[in-house]
Write a structure and sequence with these properties.
mainly beta; 5-stranded mixed β-sheet; about 50% strand
Length: about 90
């Protein structure tokens, strides 16, 4: 497969990779589904729920404030990740 881009999180084998990403304020993070099943990026505080319905589907979010943003996959809640924005 192609190399993962700088502000990308891939879903592979029911895992977010990398599980934690640190970015500056104003960065757009892209999640890419590299699995053969549907996943979501659902933030714990409810501000976004993005669907990754098929292989190679992508979702983007631009982080405009600093903080730590934890998320999980709705159909697979054991899948968790975190974006740290500085």
């Amino acid at each position: 497969p192609p190399a993962r881009g700088t502000n990308e999180v891939w879903v592979i084998n029911r895992e977010f990779q990398p599980q934690t990403i640190t970015v500056p304020v104003g960065t757009t993070v892209t999640w890419k589904n590299r699995d053969q099943e549907e996943h979501t990026v659902t933030f714990d505080d409810g501000f976004s729920n993005m669907r990754l319905s098929v292989f190679d589907a992508t979702a983007n979010y631009t982080f405009t404030v600093p903080g730590t943003f934890s998320y999980y996959c709705d159909p697979h809640p054991e899948m968790t990740g975190k974006v740290i924005v500085r």
